[in-house]
Amino acid sequence: MTATALNDLTLQQPALLLRHLNHIAGQWVPAASGARMDVLNPADQTVITQVPDSDAADARAAADAAQAAFAGWRATPARTRGQIVRRWHDLILQHQADLGRLISTEQGKPLAEGQGEVAYAASYVDWFASEASRITGDVIEPAVAGRRMLAVKEPVGVVAVITPWNFPAAMIARKIAPALAAGCTVVAKPAEDTPLTSLALVALAEAAGLPAGVLNIVCASRARTPAVVDVWLDDARVRKISFTGSTPVGQHLARRSADTLKKLSLELGGNAPFIVFDDADLDAAVTGLMASKFRNGGQTCVCPNRVYVQRGVMAAFAQRLSARVAALQVGPATEAASQIGPMINDRAVDKILRHIDDAVSRGATVLTGGQRLRTELGPHYIAPTVLADVSPQAVLCGEETFGPVVPLFAFDTEAEALALANDTPFGLAAYFYSQNPARIHRVSSALETGIVGINEGAVASEAAPFGGVKASGYGREGSIHGLDDYLHIKYLCQGGLN
């Protein structure tokens, strides 16, 4: 794909959606330094287009704009804020096909999944458009006569949003929508791999009537991202950071934000177990695993990373699963028939192959896949893979593979399965299949994760709280709890009312 390929996309309104500049204080502007960076095709790493490569000056300008806009946006009636956010939602859905194609082009997600992600992103915007007018407080019964006591909720202030590459629409929408609904203003930095979708969403927010300075976005390469984020970490006016990404980066943000005591929402690494008990519906379990594991080619934080199958049903489960996995269609993300697109970059491919090679070196058997697909498609395609007889010492037991690889581990007892599932510092998501009501109660209570899928592989919903425990972070996105991290509680005590 050449640098002009993006302009050749069949979009209904390319002038609206194809943005190549930062958005600060209501203006589309280049980086102050004039620097630009390439946005690469994930299939072959050729250049799609360029966007600004921002630095500290741009981050400061964005924070200045957000702070200047805060008082006015905070004072805007909640119903009005909700109406603007609702118009944003409507515009996202109006441009669903174009946004889906944009996601597939820069991220490598199959076209159907790209359009599905747009609908998923819009669902959060719709949800928080309604929640804007549902922010309530408490009237507290005073213990002393002549007093009135109230607890009211107010927006925290300027929010810094830092998003990953794997869901460039959904991640930014589910962070920005509650911030806007709560009355906060935003500075955002998308992942360097996938800035175009985020820029398009900001353009639609602007078209929806969002006032200048309320939502600002700057792009930056990996090399310059620390300089951008450090400005926001050091700026006391930035009162909250919402980040999705790796646990080491989340820990760094927590340490660096301590001096200004910012609120943090951290959705960090995962190492999700998927448990199949011998009383499970095996066909349903295979279908659930396919849905949860191979979404976005396995490049999601809630993908099952370790699949534990009770020994008595292992052979039957492995046979059914391998047949389904071998039938997956691998191909260019923008082709309708493709079910698995390219991995995001060289680092991702190297990690996946390292995990496969390590498991095989420790005695694992490749039931299907197991290699890079060396075709004219490009170097970043991995054959969907199932590994049997995987050693508990395999590297992939402790690291997220973030690719289309299913390792199978046998277990004998429920207690053993739970011990294996919980034997990780992470605690984002877990899944299990069983038809025993008592076991369902026991296992769901014992799993040390923030999300549990019970006989279900697709668990995400705008109406449900999304987040983890342990090294997977804290804070929740979505649901009626999703506004909490964007609000603080103020206690009002009025005397002299006798």
Automatic annotation (TrEMBL):
Q: Which SUPFAM superfamilies match?
A: ALDH-like (SSF53720)
The cross-references to InterPro entries, in alphabetical order and at most eight, read: Ald_DH/histidinol_DH, Ald_DH_C, Ald_DH_CS_CYS, Ald_DH_CS_GLU, Ald_DH_N, Aldehyde_DH_dom, Aldehyde_DH_Superfamily
Query: Which processes are annotated in GO (biological process)?
Result: gamma-aminobutyric acid catabolic process
Among the GO molecular function terms of this UniProt record, one is: succinate-semialdehyde dehydrogenase (NAD+) activity
Q: Where is the active site?
A: E267
Per the UniProt record, one Pfam family is: Aldedh
Q: Would the keyword Ubl conjugation be found if you checked this record's keyword annotation?
A: no
Provide the alphabetized UniProt keywords: Oxidoreductase
Q: Which domain of life is it from?
A: Bacteria
Q: Which PROSITE patterns match?
A: ALDEHYDE_DEHYDR_CYS, ALDEHYDE_DEHYDR_GLU
Q: Which residues form the Aldehyde dehydrogenase domain?
A: 28-491
As for family, the record states:
Belongs to the aldehyde dehydrogenase family.
Could you tell me what this protein is called?
NAD-dependent succinate-semialdehyde dehydrogenase
Native organism is Ideonella livida
